[in-house]
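Field reference: "sequence" (input) and "structure" (output). Example, 2-phytyl-1,4-beta-naphthoquinone methyltransferase, chloroplastic:
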Amino acid sequence: MAASSHLCIRSSPGMNRPIFRSSRRPVQCSVERQALFNRIAPVYDNKLNDLLSLGQHRIWKRMAVSWSGAKEGDNVLDLCCGSGDLAFLLSEKVGPNGKVIGLDFSKEQLSVASSRQYLCSKACYDNIKWVEGNALDLPFSGCYFDAIIVGYGLRNLVDLHKAMEEMYRVLKPGSNASILDFNKSADTFSASIQEWMIDNVVVPVATGYGLAEEYKYLKSSIQEFLTDVGFANAVHYEIGGGLMGNLVATR
Ligand SMILES: C/C(=C\Cc1cc(O)c2ccccc2c1O)CCC[C@H](C)CCC[C@H](C)CCCC(C)C
Ligand SMILES: C[S@@+](CC[C@H](N)C(=O)[O-])C[C@H]1O[C@@H](n2cnc3c(N)ncnc32)[C@H](O)[C@@H]1O
């Protein structure tokens, strides 16, 4: 790893998959957010997202991977990886000659990701490394990645502009950042369906998981931040009937 001087290894109890911890100086990140994602790690998983999205999130994540442009042998980043869904998909895409880094600031989320990797027998998952770090101060040198993917991560960051600058810095020129998140649809019909779903399905289900507050502000646009930091091109695709959006930004 190019920036190995910034990373140290933390053992992951009961497992043989190390988690690398960034030793860079702390920069702004929300301690409350970090605590929240640590707290929800045992319940934030495929089952919850399957329930909320009727399994559709698996399709949306595959589309995001495809838009990232990641290919065999690439070095790619799953930013705000959580329990690692996108990292696992990327791992299959880049194959044994490629490398995947899943970065998150929640130890507990990374611990879940690491045990999923350990429990799954797919050999290609050996190409994944988990890094505990901050999206606002990435522990990698410039022009390091062939693709970056972010699933439902950016909305949770305290400084979106800084995160975009960091993504731009570590991406190689000509490479893509593929950003999957909730969409703020311009179409009033789609927007009202989304609002209805969130108020009547998502929030009540999430309340049962202790996540009500987190699901109350799902409707924000992120596109404007990307072009600000110098991305050459940014294209936004509406998916899932306009409920979700995938932004593809090229450096
Ligand atoms: C993928 C989903 C949630 C991801 C998610 C994002 C966050 O920012 C969080 C923050 C804190 C805690 C948890 C999360 C989190 O889980 C679920 C998405 C649900 C959709 C809003 C609702 C989809 C409803 C429909 C049933 C889907 C039907 C699609 C249609 C047939 C095209
Ligand atoms: C809603 S989850 C999404 C997880 C995963 N990408 C997925 O699609 O299922 C958002 C993740 O962003 C992480 N996160 C939030 N702020 C972060 C930051 N400043 N640096 C690194 N990770 C962060 C959280 O810990 C959490 O795991």
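The helical segments are 31-40, 46-53, 56-68, 85-94, 107-119, 160-170, 188-208, 223-228.
Residues 3-8+26-182+228-250 form a domain with the Rossmann fold fold (CATH 3.40.50.150).
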